Fold this sequence. Notes:
By secondary structure, the protein is mainly alpha-helical. It has one domain (3-171). The chain is built from seven helices and no strands. It has helices at 3-26, 36-46, 49-66, 73-88, 97-120, 127-161, 166-171. The protein is globular.
Amino acid sequence: MYRRWLIPFATTLLLWSLVGQLNHYLAPYGAYLFVSGLLVTFAALRLSLRNGLAATLLTALAVDALEPVPFGTHFVLFGLMHVVLFHLRTRFPREELIFGVVVALLANLGLFLGLSFVTLGDPPASGAAWLRLFADLGWSQLFIVAVAPWFLALQQRALELGRVDLADESRRFF
C-alpha cells in the first residue's frame, strides 16, 4: 500500500527542508550540515525492502534535484546505503533508539565520504578543503545525535497514525 512508503518519504522531506533552512542561516558563517544518513536510516531499518527502498530513492531524487552534483549521485549513494543497511539489520536490535542513532551516524559518515570523493574527484584538492569538510562532518554528526531521537520517533508515530503495522512491515522482505 502507498502509505508504507509515502509517509516515510514525506517525513524525510520535512527534515530535509528544515535542515535546508538551517543551512541557509549557517551559510554566512561558512558552515553546512549534512544529514543524509538520517534520511536513509529509518526506512532501511524498519520497513520492507520494497517500501523502504521506494521511500529512500524518492528522497534521493528530491535531493538530487536541488544539490549541485551530477543528477543521480544521491540516487546511487542512497540506494547502496539502504541495501547495505537492510541486509545488515537482522543481526542487530533495529527497534532500539540508540542503535538507530548509531546507524544514522555511521550511514552519514559513509555517505559523506562517498559524496566527498565523488564531488572533489582529483587529488589536487587542498588540505584546507578536507579540513573544512571534516569540520562540517563533525558539526553534522553532533546535529544528528541531537535530532535523530526526535526524527526517528516522528517517523514511527507518523506510520502509526497512518495505520501501518511496523512489526508486520519489518518482518517482510519485499
